[in-house]
Design brief:
The protein is α+β, with helices and mostly antiparallel strands and 239 residues long. The protein is built from six helices and eight strands.
Length: 239
């Protein structure tokens, strides 16, 4: 008996049915991304969003686009001032962004906009919760050793220019809590108590938003501070 020829309409129907699950999954995945912008690489960055898979990549893109970076600060309702460019040569600072409501002491120095954005995320997602969970107090202020310094790395007469030369870095020395305690990188880094655990937690937390994070574990030059910068040359160094 001759075999029946397959009906091309039936074959097309089977192929269409087989394609439905992947299409449904793709639609569901897109809808999920729309509801979770922190994981969506195409969604505009908003610093009010929780940290997600796409946050670091979005922060990295801001390094090449100061206008977009400042638009992110505005969209996120972050108070800041865009200051006039200054300096020349290796110490030129075309991007001077000063946060307007950030608990830095003794002052709030101008930094690059990508550093400013990362500082906001670091405070919200790392420093504030770590202070509450590990030390049982809210954060009052963050003490720093400066952001801008027109110099080469480690103050040498030769070698690469420091990220401080363009204020693309800031050195954090201590954290003061609402209950009056002062947690110092120099005095409290070593040990197993809550203060060293807090300092290591905020160091690790900084690695999610800054390109480079250097602490006393890196070398003796960082014994009294945690260095934070957005330099792609050393991206991924977190120690």
């Amino acid at each position: 008996m001759p075999r029946k020829k397959p009906n091309p309409h039936h074959r097309a129907a089977r192929l269409a049915l087989a394609a439905l699950p992947p299409i449904a999954l793709a639609i569901a995945g897109w809808q999920w991304l729309q509801n979770h912008p922190e994981h969506n690489p195409w969604a505009p960055l908003d610093l009010d969003d929780p940290p997600g898979w796409a946050t670091r990549a979005k922060l990295d893109r801001l390094k090449a686009d100061v206008s977009e970076c400042r638009a992110v600060l505005e969209r996120s309702d972050v108070a800041f001032a865009a200051l006039a460019p200054t300096g020349e040569g290796p110490c030129a600072r075309p991007d001077r962004t000063r946060l307007g409501d950030y608990p830095l002491a003794p002052d709030t120095p101008p930094v690059t906009c990508p550093v400013a954005a990362a500082l906001e995320i670091w405070r919200r997602d790392s420093v504030t919760p770590a202070a509450r969970e590990i030390l049982g107090s809210d954060l009052a202020r963050i003490e720093h050793l400066g952001a801008f310094s027109c110099r080469r790395m480690y103050g040498g007469s030769e070698g690469p220019w420091s990220e401080h030369a363009t204020a693309n870095a800031i050195d954090i020395a201590a954290f003061v809590l609402e209950d009056g305690r002062r947690i110092s990188v120099l005095k409290d880094w070593d040990g197993d108590g809550p203060e060293p655990r807090f300092l290591r937690a905020v160091r690790e937390g900084a690695c999610g938003s800054f390109a480079t994070v250097l602490s006393p574990d890196y070398n003796a030059a960082h014994a009294d501070h945690i260095h934070l910068d957005q330099d792609d040359r050393w991206a991924g160094v977190c120690r």
